[in-house]
Amino acid sequence: MFIILVYDVNQKRVAKVLKKCRQYLHWVQNSVLEGEISEANLKKLKMELERIIRKDEDSVIFYNLRTTKYSSREIIGLEKGGQENII
Amino acid sequence: MFIILVYDVNQKRVAKVLKKCRQYLHWVQNSVLEGEISEANLKKLKMELERIIRKDEDSVIFYNLRTTKYSSREIIGLEKGGQENII
């Protein structure tokens, strides 16, 4: 399945959350990551994030696009994210 | 088409950007909005945002899912966003 993940977490935990997410997904830009991921790994990622975040302060959204990637992605302004994993 | 919009802009311009985006999309959570939008309105929104943001500091991503909505959206942690427009 294809996932777009957006996190909004306390500054103290940003580095940890980003590091964890990058083990599974490609970093697009600041708080956004995306990529193909298996159902098993998605479950794992969620469990691991739940251990890192504080549920009363932080928030992570998973958009599940199932089998299909989005049709297009357009950025206006700065490209802040990493391109290291983009094929 | 269905759009997921994620913005990352300087604090000074957040209120303006959010206000503008909410004229066209539903607010999901902090810097994330989503919704059905016509091609014409999407063009308008982009043009209007380009007038508000500073391209050397700010960044807005548009994920275009074309005709289909995502399969599921899951939030772990806090639901920070507005639910006012969710049907």
Automatic annotation (TrEMBL), chains A, B:
Its cofactor is Mg(2+). GO terms for biological process: defense response to virus; maintenance of CRISPR repeat elements. It comes from the Bacteria. Signal peptide: none annotated. One of its GO terms (molecular function) is metal ion binding. It is an enzyme of class 3 (hydrolase). The keyword Hydrolase applies. Keywords: Antiviral defense, Endonuclease, Hydrolase, Magnesium, Metal-binding, Nuclease. Coiled coil: none annotated. InterPro entries: CRISPR_associated_Cas2 (IPR021127), Virulence_VapD/CRISPR_Cas2 (IPR019199). Belongs to the CRISPR-associated endoribonuclease Cas2 protein family. CRISPR (clustered regularly interspaced short palindromic repeat), is an adaptive immune system that provides protection against mobile genetic elements (viruses, transposable elements and conjugative plasmids). CRISPR clusters contain sequences complementary to antecedent mobile elements and target invading nucleic acids. CRISPR clusters are transcribed and processed into CRISPR RNA (crRNA). Functions as a ssRNA-specific endoribonuclease. Involved in the integration of spacer DNA into the CRISPR cassette. This is CRISPR-associated endoribonuclease Cas2. It comes from Pelotomaculum isophthalicicum JI. The gene is cas2.
